[in-house]
Amino acid sequence: KKTYWGIFVNQINGYRWPYDVFDRRWDPDYGKYGTPKKTSLNVTENSQPSFGLPMPVMQTAAYSKEIVITWPGGVDHSYYLFLDFADVLLPSHANSRQMEVRLNGQNWNSTPVYYCRSTVLYSRAATTDSQYSFSIRSANPSDEGAVLNSFEVYQVLQLTGYKTHPEDGLLSLLFLIPFL
Hints:
The chain is mainly β. The protein is built from 1 helix and 13 strands; from the N terminus they run βββαββββββββββ. It has a single domain, classed as Jelly Rolls (Sandwich), CATH 2.60.120. Strand 7 and strand 8 form a beta hairpin. The termini are close together. One of its GO terms (cellular component) is membrane. It holds the Pfam family Malectin_like.
């Protein structure tokens, strides 16, 4: 299964350690989500908590009128989504642009996107749907359109049958695994 997707320009292989301090594997999308663009400037991580996004991942982005990410779900499957944004092209009219994100046609979230500064949108709770379709659009249709540097999808696994020492109390093991 794929783990994390980045938009890499002229890159055949993905990135891992030492670029990613959490040793996530970032695979290129080969233009699947839009036209890839790149900057040689450093992209500042602008989110708390820090997600440790690798510089080579954030220095590339896909641009399109609309960016759509889909995957099948199910009643027994729940997921967390992380969307990573930073403009790598100097915006033509403002310091920031507004991205609107929809989940299955419904408003999900929105965020400003800045030139060479990262912004991360993420699920606050795991979601369970039969199908997932996230669409990203710019709130201002006259600008460069939607932008996305990378995304991460984690499937929640409930592990059963594992017991802790009785004095430790009850423990419910929740693991997040990369999905796509």
